[in-house]
Design a protein that fits this description.
The structure holds 2 protein chains of 2 kinds. By secondary structure, chain A is an all-alpha fold. Helices cover 79% and strands 0% of the residues of chain A. Chain A contains 10 helices and no strands. Chain B is mostly helical. Chain B has one domain. Chain B contains 4 helices and no strands. Classes of the chains: A mainly alpha, B mainly alpha.
């Protein structure tokens, strides 16, 4: 009975999915780009993330208990990215494997102005272990809070807080070395 | 020479600035999602007319299958279209894209059916 009551009309689900898509397209694309470091792969990953999300949206909504769905979306992208590299039988040297492209896309103005600090930071991000790098992408590129990152990574809030703290510390050492 | 060091987290935030998706990706993805939802709605309408009393018994799984298949097919079409744009238009190129699209469609279908 309650199960039936919780069923939403399809039109409503579609409208809610559309809202989710519009709210988080940039988040998913940013994550994908920093994760795979290439615009073509990032586009593919973004498309696949939303198509997969659409297929499982109703269940995700039921299970989310009203919590934001962004961590769920990012987790889909995270898993798809992992599959992408597994399928290609190669591990990325880093999620940002094309520094030239990255610099041209994100930091052109600053670099032109002589602020190469940013490129050192990006190089440092590349050098971090996977989990620390992912956490920093989620925090700084997507502006996710600890709780959201914890859900996306499947960790506890406490462990995530420590992970981010250590990631920043390590990155700072790399950059100022 | 060296600027006053901003706080490190600020620098990190600046370095990892959000990336705007290419405009054509947004347009393409939106139209794909729209066509998926519209097609699925049509299918649902047909099913639900004859299964109004308890659509969950059979209409939803059937519609989900249609919907999933459509999503896979739409993605395949998108990829084929992108490949076609990326290469010069030639008969061989078109044939190659079509062959790859058929192979992709087969793979997507297997994935979708394997999912259920």
């Amino acid at each position: 009975m309650t199960e039936q009551a919780s069923q939403k009309p399809k039109a409503q689900l579609d409208a809610e999915f559309s809202e989710l898509y519009r709210a988080h397209l940039r988040d998913v694309y940013s994550y994908a780009y920093y994760r795979v470091g290439d615009h073509h792969d990032a586009e593919d990953l973004t498309e696949q993330t939303f198509l997969q999300a659409y297929r499982h949206f109703e269940r995700a909504q039921r299970e989310s208990d009203g919590r934001p769905l962004r961590p769920w979306l990012i987790r889909i992208a995270h898993n798809l990215a992992a599959n992408l590299y597994r399928d290609r039988s190669r591990k990325p040297v880093s999620p940002i494997d094309d520094t030239t492209t990255l610099a041209a896309t994100h930091t052109t103005e600053q670099l032109v102005e002589g602020r190469d600090e940013l490129s050192r930071v990006l190089d440092g991000v590349q050098a971090l272990p996977d989990d620390r790098r992912e956490a920093l992408i989620m925090r700084f590129a997507l502006g996710m809070d600890n709780r959201e990152i914890a859900r996306a990574l499947g960790r506890s809030d406490g462990a995530t807080k420590v992970l981010i703290h250590r990631a920043i510390k390590q990155l700072e050492e790399i950059v100022h070395d | 020479m060296t600027e006053a060091a901003p706080n490190f987290e600020g620098l990190l935030r600046e370095a990892l600035a959000p990336v705007e998706p290419p405009a054509d990706l947004a347009v393409r993805l939106e139209s794909t999602l729209t066509s998926i939802t519209e097609m699925a709605a049509d299918e649902l309408e047909a099913w639900e007319l004859s299964a109004m009393r308890d659509p969950r018994n059979w209409a939803r799984p059937a519609a989900a299958l249609v919907l999933g298949g459509t999503a896979g097919a739409a993605l395949v079409v998108l990829r084929a279209r992108r490949r076609a744009h990326g290469s010069p238009a030639s008969i061989d190129g078109v044939r190659e894209v079509a062959e790859r699209a058929v192979q992709d469609l087969g793979r997507e279908a297997r994935k979708l059916l394997g999912d259920r």
